[in-house]
Design goal:
Blueprint lengths: L1 H23 L7 E5 L19 H4 L10 E4 L6 E5 L16 H4 L1 E5 L2 H7 L5 E4 L3 H6 L10 H10 L5 H26 L4 H12 L11 E4 L21 E6 L2 E2 L2 E2 L2 E6 L5 H18 L8 H5 L2
Parallel strand pairs: 1-5, 3-4
Antiparallel strand pairs: 1-2, 2-3, 6-7, 7-10, 8-9
Length: 300
């Protein structure tokens, strides 16, 4: 079932990108579009790498969260996935293949980006990604690096989800709820912010850098800080309020769930506030349906 919806997803993207290339960016006279997953970066004056996160437009096509991967999209042609796997004994470089790729892409395995430059078919391409120097090495003109009309069009239409994308988002939300329940249980058992954070990760079976964003786990007064970033280790048997904002990622699609939990003895004013917020939330959620603008709901 996933293979079928994924193939339909790729077909939908192909149509959208062909329109972007031939109409939206018509003045650039493009033959195609090269999408770069991104480059690996390191902390200043250090050999420790920063956790990598691939470019969203690359992940829109293929779930490979690895640096220096490239996709070539051309009207009327099967997309080419340049799978760059360096010869390396320092780090694991293998990339697990998905069966559905064979139906959706022409996969070309190479050892370096310089091999990609040699393997690129002739034509004038635009480049989407972070590295103008890489685009130059691929003989792509600077004017064709992230052209604004093209990027704006593709950014806008990412909001329209295919059935494949909706399936991944549903699963990501369902699995995140398991972690939220574990976090609640840990809070009620007197766990610290650190304990609650680990309970969430452990139940979801993920590492910190595998979540779609950094978890927010805030007890009591810290829950008033919008993007509270710490995880206090002190035990918190007397804590009255837990705010947790945590998600789960499935094939590069992330859920984003915020929950507030309280103990039975929480201050009456806060309990009333929470009940009121829940009622507002339920009323707004009940309005969500196809054809209703999110902006109209947000303005309420």
């Amino acid at each position: 079932m996933i293979a079928e919806t994924y193939q339909n997803h790729i077909a939908t993207l192909q149509i959208s990108y062909e329109k972007a290339i031939t109409h939206v960016a018509a003045s650039h006279q493009l033959d195609g579009l090269l999408i770069h997953s991104g480059s690996e970066h390191y902390y200043f004056d250090d050999d420790r790498g920063i956790a990598f996160q691939a470019f969203g437009h690359f992940l829109h096509w293929i779930d490979v969260n690895r640096p220096d991967q490239l996709l070539l999209i051309r009207p009327g042609e099967t997309p080419i996935y340049f799978q760059v796997i360096p010869d390396d004994f320092w780090y694991e470089q293998a990339i697990a293949s998905e069966p559905a790729w064979g139906e959706c892409f022409k996969v070309m395995r190479v050892n370096s980006l310089s091999e990609v430059a040699k393997a690129l078919p002739s034509g004038q391409f635009a480049y989407l990604g972070e590295s103008s120097s890489l685009a130059g090495a691929m003989n792509i003109a600077e004017a064709n690096c992230n052209p604004k009309p093209l990027c704006s069009y593709l950014d806008y239409y990412r909001a329209y989800k295919t059935e494949y994308e909706l399936d991944q988002l549903r699963t990501a939300n369902q699995l995140a709820l398991n972690g939220h329940q574990a976090a609640r249980d840990c809070f009620l058992a007197g766990g610290s912010e650190y304990d609650i954070h680990l309970a969430y990760l452990g139940t979801c079976g993920v590492l910190e850098d595998e979540t779609p964003y950094t978890n927010i786990v805030a007890l009591d007064d810290k829950s008033a800080i919008l993007h509270y970033q710490n995880k206090r280790r002190q035990l918190a048997q007397t804590s009255q309020v837990l705010l947790i904002d945590a998600g789960y990622r499935v094939r590069s699609y992330g859920s984003d769930i915020t929950r507030t939990w309280v103990r039975d003895g929480v201050h009456a004013s806060f309990a009333e506030l929470l009940v009121g917020m829940e009622a507002i939330k339920d009323r707004l959620v009940a309005q969500v349906r196809p054809g209703i603008s999110y902006i109209d709901i947000h303005r309420q």
